[in-house]
Amino acid sequence: xxxxxxxxxxxxxxxxxxxxxxxxxxxxxxxxxxxxxxxxxxxxxxxxxxxxxxxxxxxxxxxxxxxxxxxxxxxxxxxxxxxxxxxxxxxxxxxxxxxxxxxxxxxxxxxxxxxxxxxxxxxxxxxxxxxxxxxxxxxxxxxxxxxxxxxxxxxxxxxxxxxxxxxxxxxxxxxxxxxxxxxxxxxxxxxxxxxxxxxxxxxxxxxxxxxxxxxxxxxxxxxxxxxxxxxxxxxxxxxxxxxxxxxxxxxxxxxxxxxxxxxxxxxxxxxxxxxxxxxxxxxxxxxxxxxxxxxxxxxxxxxxxxxxxxxxxxxxxxxxxxxxxxxxxxxxxxxxxxxxxxxxxxxxxxxxxxxxxxxxxxxxxxxxxxxxxxxxxxxxxxxxxxxxxxxxxxxxxxxxxxxxxxxxxxxxxxxxxxxxxxxxxxxxxxxxxxxxxxxxxxxxxxxxxxxxx
Length: 453
What we know:
Blueprint: H1 2-21, E1 26-31, E2 42-44, H2 48-57, H3 62-75, E3 78-83, H4 87-96, E4 103-106, H5 109-118, E5 140-144, E6 151-162, E7 165-168, H6 185-197, H7 215-229, H8 231-238, H9 247-260, H10 274-277, E8 291-292, H11 298-302, E9 311-314, E10 326-336, H12 341-350, H13 353-362, H14 383-390, E11 395-398, H15 400-403, H16 406-421, H17 426-439, E12 451-452
Parallel strand pairs: 1-3, 1-4, 10-11
Antiparallel strand pairs: 2-3, 4-10, 5-6, 6-10, 7-8, 7-9, 11-12
Helix pairs in contact: 2-3, 3-13, 7-8, 7-9, 16-17
């Protein structure tokens, strides 16, 4: 018996060695979607209870966590997710310490440019093979490589948001009613004046946001400029090729000031956050009637009395008829910071139909994409389907301040806050913005064109 026992030892040791060498495949992901518990920002994709709790809470991170869980079940790769509002700062810290996440989802497109130039971001051309790219084309971000200057795919858009929308509550006392929403700037000015004449507050203004306030105001300027001057001028301005003091840019600021009565009763807007401002539409009586906000605001509206419906109309044009079809959008874009087989598998999974289906269903049909193969009828008939169509048709121009260098964006955000408080500062503010533009190196600007269906 002893000989048999001793004979088994090498076998057991060898087996144990094989088990010890078996590696659990893992990867880390950072994104800006917040979890329901601010004190526990990290979630493991294998933690069923935690993922289900996030889904039950309807947190921002919940749909993406559902996608990561499905990815883990399909591939066996475990994912650690970190949600943070200040994803740019967290990512910068990780890169500087040579400890970046494997994959990051970035809401600011210019961050991609920064990391491409520094060589910290890996191209995705070999990860997303050509045969898969027909419908993916609108989702792929091509940037010039750090060494040879040749355009390569460095980003995959995984979530899209329509921004050229104005929200209202049909039938609200003193509001815009339900018939014939304004289709032109003149009609929008008339509606705003009518609401004000009846003693109401036309616009729900909230400039506050974390980590940086002011971007709701930059959205306004961008949308007006796009619909006044058209996509070609908008692209050139976003790429840093047009002076802020130009007549067209100045006209956009003046138009916003006139519409929202800048300097008059706008002090609360500087203290109100973007996600609470529009809730005033649901008060009884309404505290305000119109909210210029992106499609991601729907979740906040749905938290109100469900018996009070809400709707949107497209941002009115004030330029040539061709600008009516132009829409401003924003995106969340995936970049790969560690070139590993696990990271490549996740990128490929996020580019596929199964991930989009899980995301849409877990997001309660409020998760949208730029994918050209999107079937809007997959969304419920109503505003969800209309938003899906907005994001896959017409001319879609990316958020300009998301593409601008960080210093330019920060100055832009600060300027809109100052202008809203005191419109008499406009000329000085535009001159200061032009100074920042002139001092920003040319290679820090992005030149991404608008998308056309």
